[in-house]
Amino acid sequence: MARKKIPIKKIDNINARQVTFSKRRKGLFKKAQELSTLCDAQIALIVFSATSKLFEYATSSMQQILERRNRHSGVQGSDISSTGQQQLGSESFDMLRKVVEDKTHELSQLNGQDLQGLTIQELQKLEELLQRRWTTISKIKEEKMTQEINSLKTKEAELTEENQKLKQLVREQRQCYESITSSSSDFPADNGSSDTSLKLGLRLFE
């Protein structure tokens, strides 16, 4: 029975895409090793995953092979032609665009969108992920509320202490005022005789 041919197109399922990438990458490196052994070829492979993780393989030293490639193409050191720069820029842009598309797709699934193509296992994993994130959010929320309550209690205690100090100050001022009032009432009342004696004494000295 002939093996079913898999169409070459982007795999929408993230988990399946990662598994396929891992298997194909290992197969590619294995084929490169076999080619090097059979034909005595110098081979260097550089692979970036959708998450920008670097994978590389070289039959000898990656640096030596790259320097040999640069000498062969007439490029010295880090001098790259404008065509090469454009090609690298285009590849980097395509890679970044792919990463953005994947992350956007994951975000839409977390928001409850684009779920029709997922299997029961994938939906269960997505549900577990959301539950873990909800648990984390709830925990952080409780910690924030506890901190806010403790802060309010501290402020309440400070205000209560300040209020007690103000009450004590008012009582002390009232006692001081009552003491002054009581002392002034102990002096004898003035009468007319004292004024008359004073006037007579002044006249004797005139």
How is the topology of this model organized?
Layout lengths: L13 H26 L4 E5 L5 E5 L3 H11 L9 H29 L9 H65 L7 H13 L2
Antiparallel strand pairs: 1-2
Describe this structure in words.
- The chain is mostly helical and 206 residues long.
- The protein contains five helices and two strands, in the order H-E-E-H-H-H-H.
- It has helices at residues 14-39, 62-72, 82-110, 120-184, 192-204; strands at 44-48, 54-58.
- The protein has a two-stranded antiparallel sheet with strand order 1-2.
- A hairpin with a 5-residue loop joins strand 1 and strand 2 (54-58).
- The longest helix has 65 residues, at 120-184.
- It is elongated.
- It starts with 13 loop residues before the first helix and ends with a helix.
- The mean pLDDT is 77.
Descriptors:
206 residues, mainly alpha, two-stranded antiparallel sheet, 5 helices, 70% helix, 5% strand
Distance between the termini: 152 Å
Give the overall shape, derived from the CA principal axes. elongated
Radius of gyration: 45 Å
User: So how many helices?
Assistant: 5
Query: Which structural class is indicated by helix and strand composition?
Result: mainly alpha
Please provide the count of β strands.
2
Characterize the largest beta sheet: strand count, sense, and whether it forms a barrel.
Answer: 2 strands, antiparallel
Output mean pLDDT.
77
Biggest sheet, spatial arrangement of strands? 1-2
Give the SSE order as H and E letters: HEEHHHH
Give the low-pLDDT segments.
none
Roughly how much helix do the residues carry, as a percent range? 55-70%
Estimated share of beta-strand residues: under 5%
